[in-house]
Design brief:
Layout: H1 14-48, H2 50-64, E1 75-79, E2 83-88, E3 106-109, E4 121-125, E5 136-137, E6 140-142, H3 146-151
């Protein structure tokens, strides 16, 4: 049916379609870097909060497990620059491994260039969730003040500490 002035409506022209596609492509090009930065920050926040989360999981495991012998830990967290490993008190390793361990209740590998800790250490808790002062686990020194040290670190300010 003819429109005003006897001209038939024809829809979109090829030029109009190309302009629309170019504008859409420009919007996408502008948004991709923003979303990649958003995902990058999310991954960094997850990595930063992995250590406090591991400490909370260690406390939770310690409160649920009774040690086989008094003075032995109910739960142990092995921290190395590249891995976190959580163990029950009845299945402690001879030393802290630097990679995820199949014997661990929970393991996590560092996926970023930032290490979890600068040097390997362990964190042992008794069945009441209190830190134990172990001298060492193999060649790894144990730190009973680890949680207090981390609570004051600004890198973990956005993570929940008890």
């Amino acid at each position: 049916m003819p429109g005003p002035m006897g001209v038939k409506p024809r829809g979109l022209t090829l030029v109009e379609m190309m302009i629309t596609l170019v504008l859409l492509a420009l919007v996408l090009v502008a948004l991709v870097p923003l979303t990649s930065q958003w995902f990058g920050r999310s991954k960094q926040n997850t990595a930063d909060c992995a250590l406090p989360t591991a400490i909370d999981m260690t406390r939770s495991l310690a409160l649920r497990n009774l040690p086989a012998d008094p003075g032995k830990p109910a739960a142990l967290l092995c921290l190395t620059p590249t891995a976190l490993n959580l163990y029950r008190g009845n299945a402690l390793p001879a030393s802290c491994p630097t990679t995820p361990d199949a014997q661990a209740v929970w393991s996590l590998t560092s996926s970023t260039s930032a290490p979890f800790v600068s040097a390997g250490r362990c964190y042992a808790l008794d069945s009441a969730g209190r830190p134990l002062a172990l001298a060492a686990l193999g060649s790894t020194a144990c730190d009973s003040a680890l949680e207090t040290t981390l609570a004051g670190d600004s890198r973990y300010a956005n993570c929940r500490f008890k």
